[in-house]
Amino acid sequence: MAEDVTLEDYEYPTDPTWCPGCGDFAILRSVKASLVDLGLAPHESLLVSGIGCGSKLPHYMNVNGYHSIHGRPVPVATGAKLANPDMNVVVTAGDGDSYGIGGNHFLHSCRRNIGITHIVEDNRVYGLTKGQYSPTSHKGFVTKTSPEGSIEPPVRPVPTALTSGATFIARAFSGHVQEMNEIFAAAMNHDGYALVDVLQPCVTFNPGKSYDFYTDLVYDLDEDYDPTDREAAEEKAKEWGNRIPLGIIYREDRPTYEEQVPALQEGPVANRSLDPEERSGVDLEEVKGSFM
Amino acid sequence: MINGNEAIAFGAAVGGCNFVSAYPMTPSTSILEWLAKHSEEMDIVIKQPESELAAISIAIGAGHVGARPLVTTSGGGFSLMTEAFGLAGTTETSLVIAEVQRPGPSTGLPTRTEQGDLSSIIHASQGESPRMIISPATIEEAFQAGKRAFDLAEEYQLPVVILNDQHLADSYRAVHPDRFDTEVDIDRGELLTEEDLKELDGEYLRHEFTDSGISPRAVPGNKYATYKTTGNEHDQNGDVTEDPEIRTKMMDKRMKKLDTALERDVEGPKRYGPEDAELTFLGWGSPYGAVREAVDKLNHDGISSNFYHLHDIYPLPAEEVKNAIESSERVIVVENNFSGQLADFITRETGIQLPERILKYDGRPFTPEDVLSELDDYEEVN
Question: What is the pTM of this model?
Answer without folding.
Answer: 0.98
